[in-house]
């Protein structure tokens, strides 16, 4: 039994430069926000977690952080009770919204997650075991990721507080998407590709997928329009891309809509939008609405609950993939540890990692080779904070002015008439 207790909790909001990546609700702001959670113990250890940093979420993290000293990092059930209690007092059980695409009915899982990850990091450091061992043991020593392609502008248009322009250039047509994919494949070795759609008419996005198929005959492909299409259009796209994509991700919103599409196509449907909490699994499975669930430990309540999700998808014969949002190295390490210990991870995981140019962890641990990351075998998550970089990215948070993810608001500052493309086509 451990004698260590949590003695101090530090939550540091950070901002890092993010390119103008387009999606169904708008465009990424010049700065992406994350919060880095540090749990210090009275035995001198530090455990790490990473999560969203929208200001409402930050306030909830801070409330939990204040209540946490004295807690036992081994007692995940007590941690969850504490989060439920604190949020009950702070919010009366309100949900949370993360940038227009992800709304959750309860904030418990998203607030609990970075603390649970940091506790597992602590326990791993104390016992000398990698987090994958604490989740049941690694079943693979490398975790495959897919190259995440985005339509994008060449740079952030004339924003006074804009971040530095990126060197990816414009990607607004099939040729430019293929060029982006070549850079992803050549630079990181990805063995599968996902295109973020929901930006242009589905015919154009299908043409981009077909151009990718011609350019990369052997790579599995995915298209994710984040619910931009009606069920009718989704069926037409599925007919056109049958045999071309390994799955279509959230072609249309909602369990009912996805079920209508699933009934009329053999193309597997994946989701990180209509099944984002345990309560959604029963209706989705009953309606056979989705064949693949994208797990996400930030959203599903940490690593153990994500492992539980893996078990449920296995039980019901569903596929399992992994979702990402713009993130830094602590999240990547947690994703890698979880994926390492997930026997039925049937698809390469998503990651936004190639899109960022800054980090808070020391380099050299989480390198991509052949599109995959070697599972760290050292204690805990296997990554260390670089305190200079943490300080730098915190300064960027303080000065950048962004306080929540607002893709639609930012898009409207550039195209005032913009309305989200949800169910548009
Ligand atoms: O698979 C997904 O739906 C995502 O990756 C959601 C993200 O928010 C993505 O759309 C983005 O970064 O714009
Ligand atoms: Mg998705």
From TrEMBL:
It is an enzyme of class 4 (lyase). Residues 174-268 form the Mandelate racemase/muconate lactonizing enzyme C-terminal domain. Keywords: Lyase, Magnesium, Metal-binding. Its cofactor is Mg(2+). The keyword Cell cycle does not apply. Pathway: Carbohydrate acid metabolism; D-glucarate degradation; 2,5-dioxopentanoate from D-glucarate: step 1/2. GO terms for molecular function: glucarate dehydratase activity; metal ion binding. The active site is at residues 196, 323. Coiled coil: none annotated. Its EC number is 4.2.1.40. CDD domains: D-glucarate_dehydratase. It holds the Pfam family MR_MLE_C. It catalyses: D-glucarate = 5-dehydro-4-deoxy-D-glucarate + H2O. It comes from the Bacteria. Transmembrane segments: none annotated. Belongs to the mandelate racemase/muconate lactonizing enzyme family. GlucD subfamily. This is glucarate dehydratase. It comes from Nocardioides albus. The lineage of its organism: Bacteria, Bacillati, Actinomycetota, Actinomycetes, Propionibacteriales.
């Amino acid at each position: 039994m451990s004698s260590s207790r949590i003695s101090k909790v530090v939550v540091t909001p950070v901002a890092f430069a993010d390119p103008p990546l387009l999606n169904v609700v708008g465009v990424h702001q010049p700065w992406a926000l994350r919060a880095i959670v540090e749990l210090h113990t009275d035995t001198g250890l530090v455990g790490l977690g990473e999560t969203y940093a929208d200001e409402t979420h930050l306030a909830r993290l801070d409330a939990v952080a204040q209540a946490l000293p004295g807690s036992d990092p081994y007692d995940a059930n007590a941690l969850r009770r504490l989060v439920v209690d604190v949020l009950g007092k702070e919010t009366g059980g309100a949900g949370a919204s993360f940038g227009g695409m992800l709304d959750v009915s309860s904030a418990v899982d998203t607030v609990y997650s970075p603390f649970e990850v940091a506790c597992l990091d602590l326990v791993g450091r104390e016992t000398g075991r990698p987090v994958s061992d604490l989740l049941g043991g690694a079943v693979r020593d490398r975790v495959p990721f897919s190259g995440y392609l985005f339509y994008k502008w060449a740079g952030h248009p004339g924003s006074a507080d804009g971040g530095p322009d990126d060197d990816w250039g414009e990607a607004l047509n099939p040729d430019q998407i293929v060029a982006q994919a070549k850079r992803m494949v050549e630079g990181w070795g990805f063995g599968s590709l996902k295109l973020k759609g929901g930006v242009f008419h589905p015919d154009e996005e299908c043409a981009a997928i077909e151009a990718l198929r011609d350019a990369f005959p052997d790579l599995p492909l995915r298209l994710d329009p984040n619910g931009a299409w009606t069920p009718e259009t989704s069926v037409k796209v599925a007919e056109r891309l049958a045999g071309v994509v390994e799955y279509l991700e959230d072609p249309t919103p909602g369990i009912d809509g996805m079920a209508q599409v699933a009934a009329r196509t053999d193309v597997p449907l994946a989701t990180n939008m209509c099944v984002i909490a345990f309560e959604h699994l029963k209706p989705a499975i009953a309606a056979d609405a989705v064949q693949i669930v994208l797990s996400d430990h930030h959203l599903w309540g940490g690593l153990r609950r994500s492992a539980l999700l893996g078990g449920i998808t296995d039980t019901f014969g569903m596929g399992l993939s992994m979702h990402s949002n713009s993130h830094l190295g602590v999240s990547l390490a947690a994703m890698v540890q979880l994926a390492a210990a997930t026997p039925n991870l049937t698809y390469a995981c998503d990651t936004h990692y190639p899109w960022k140019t800054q980090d808070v962890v020391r380099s050299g641990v989480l390198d991509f080779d052949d599109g995959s990351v070697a599972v760290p075998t050292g204690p805990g998550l296997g990554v260390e904070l670089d305190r200079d970089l943490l300080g730098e990215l915190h300064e960027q948070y303080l000065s950048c002015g962004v306080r929540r993810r607002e893709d639609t608001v930012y898009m409207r500052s550039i195209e005032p008439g913009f309305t989200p493309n949800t169910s548009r086509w």
